[in-house]
Design a protein that fits this description.
It is a single chain. By secondary structure, the chain is an alpha/beta fold. 38% of the residues lie in helices and 22% in strands. The strands form three sheets. Strands 1, 2, 3, 4, 5, 6, 9, 10 and 11 form a nine-stranded mixed sheet that branches. The protein has a two-stranded antiparallel ribbon with strand order 7-8. Helix 7 packs parallel to helix 9. The N and C termini lie far apart (71 Å).
Length: 312
């Protein structure tokens, strides 16, 4: 006589085996640029505890990290110069696939996670099928939710919040940190666009996936704490993200660059330019080096209109 308890136990055992099997074929790609070593080690250790292999790609110009200061189980690649997040991510993808990776997860150097997050993410994927999932993102300072985006048939973007969901929900655009992908996705849509260098890299790639009807879902049970920018300031209805002049350059320039990509809806590209310019305008009321920021903004607009790409 088979009891309900034994059936449930068998089902859980099978699910745990499948999750362990997936995790053994999972590679986590962490892209670094002058990282906080303590935070970086904490992230890598938790990923290794979850059963993932870790490939750390360092974009720092001069030797900054050494294999000896990283947790055992990290594969370390130093590029010797800042070639941008897209190039570093593509290097990590190539390494992971060459070494048998079936599932690839991306993390920023300062993202904060708890053990078990990878199990929640990979359990929603089927190896061999093109699929993408992401954790629910929370600002690690304000503890407010960082929403994903949906894009309607007209190309208009809208924030998609958690709202107490208990099962994964569909979105169109997610941030790169926490993005969990089966390798088949890259075989269909390709890697990240290195011409963008850093900003809008995740957005452009997600819109390519949208064009190919590859689903992207947020897994509410997986929570990641993340920070966008050096800080943020609330100004009325607008939250202004504080970034360095260099980051602002890429944000403005690349928002114009979206117009030159056929898979990016016109309305979405227009929204991106307006949002970026308005947000950067209000930033001028916050920063001290106003003249430097203003010159950077004008250069970014000019380069964006002229179609300049690659590193500044």
């Amino acid at each position: 006589r088979i009891s309900l308890k034994s059936i449930i136990h068998d089902i859980n055992s099978i699910q745990n085996y499948k999750s362990s099997e997936k995790l053994s074929r999972t590679f986590s790609i962490v892209v670094c640029y002058r990282p906080d070593i303590e935070l970086l080690n904490q992230l890598c250790e938790k990923l290794i505890i979850d059963g993932s292999r870790v490939v750390l790609v360092d974009n720092t110009e001069t030797p900054y990290l050494e294999q000896g200061i990283l947790p055992e189980g990290c594969q370390f690649i130093t590029l010797g110069c800042n070639k941008g997040i897209a190039h570093a991510q593509n290097i990590g993808i190539d390494v992971a696939i060459q070494e048998g990776g079936e599932i690839i997860v991306f993390f920023d150097q300062d993202s904060q996670i708890e053990p078990g997050i990878l199990k929640s993410l990979v359990s929603e994927l089927i190896i061999g099928e093109p699929n993408i999932v992401s954790p629910r993102c929370v600002d690690n300072i304000s503890h407010t939710e960082l929403p994903a985006l949906t894009v309607n048939r007209y190309g208009m973007a809208k924030s998609k919040f958690y709202h107490g969901a208990t099962s994964p929900y569909l979105v169109d655009i997610i941030i790169s940190s926490g993005t969990t992908v089966t390798k088949e996705v890259f075989q269909i849509v390709g890697g990240f666009d290195e011409d963008l260098f850093i900003d809008y890299v995740d957005t452009e790639w997600c819109l390519r996936c949208r064009e190919k009807n590859i689903p992207i879902r947020v897994v509410p049970s997986a929570v990641m704490y993340h920070r966008i920018g050096m800080s943020s300031v609330k100004m009325g209805l607008i939250t202004v993200q504080v970034h360095s002049p260099e980051r602002c350059y890429y944000q403005i320039r690349n928002s114009f660059s979206l117009f030159r990509r056929s898979h990016v809806p016109f309305i979405f590209a227009s929204q991106s330019i307006i949002y970026t310019l308005v947000n950067r305008f209000f930033l001028l009321f916050i920063v001290k080096q106003k003249s430097i920021y203003m010159r950077t903004f004008l250069r970014a607009i000019s380069d964006g209109l002229m179609g300049v790409i690659g590193p500044k």
